[in-house]
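Supplementary Note 3. Input sequence used for the single-chain structure prediction.
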Amino acid sequence: MRSESLHVVGRQLHPLSIPFSLLRHARTFLVPLLLFFFFAVGSSWERWAAWLLIPIAAFEAFRYFVTKYTITDSELIVRQGLIFRSVRHIPLHRIQNIDYTQNPLHRLFNVAEVRVETAGGAKPEAELKVLSLSQIEELRRGVFGTADAVQASIDETSRAVESTHAAEGPARTLLALGPVDLLKLSLVTNRGFVGFAVIAGLAWQFDLDDHLANFAIIDALKTMIRQAPPIASALLIGGLIVLLYLTFSIVWSFVTFHRFRLQIEGEDLRITTGLISRLTATIPVQRIQLVVVRQTLLHRWLGVSSVIVQTAGSGGDLDEQPHIGRRWIAPIIDEQRIPALLEILQPHLNHDVSD
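The predicted structure, written as discrete structure tokens, is reproduced below.
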């Protein structure tokens, strides 16, 4: 039976979008503002530059009032501007994902930044900053519910999918990562090299070696390396590099995948992840085009794998997809649990196992 269409007409962004937009501008001008407060003297031009915040605030307030979105039977319409108006018509059948991200301030006020991803789009088709969580749920139901209804009138098989969707009930957790899982993930990823490279570059650029020499433990390590035999010095330096690598990997894993949850609700997969900024991604199961089960040598030693999915139009290179949460549908999972997960991700897909 065809599901009812949910029409959403002329919705505005959440009023908190104005102060959050100002915060984004404040981050951009953070360094100049700090310099201004610490070094501005008398009535210099830097002091007058602070008045630029007033027109920026006025512009953000104006943009809030002239930005609206509407959901019809066939498309999502996003209108912006008054004199120079921009109207984006996004067909519902092309929308692949509606993701939202929350930093700590967003979570405090129950709002989030929303990205609407479409098939074939390298960048988000629309960004709505910010919406309340209830608005996001209404948007998701309006887009995917209406799109499913349109498809049901064309494709007989999708009617069975809708009845299954209604019968499956509340969300069911497929994968939840704990501290041990995140430690294993730290070992099998190469993110530690990125952090190490950044620190090494900063040390080279700003001569951090001279500044850190004032710390007793750093000075003791340097003395130990200089006085030790060449082989012992090389082993000590290698051990320090490995320790830094593991430290950066562990920090990255815990920040990125803190409280990672993969859930299924009807025919939708929902992923939540992140410690500081919390990402929530929704993936309709029927739109998954490719599933890749990836294993390196370390994966095999630990008896785990990483499962990556690709939706229609999300791009050819899995490693360049923009969102970690959606790309790695299972960042790390025991090998024994993979068959059950693949069965849920539709067994008729082509599965590519990368060594």
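The longest strand covers residues 95-102. The longest helix spans residues 230-256.
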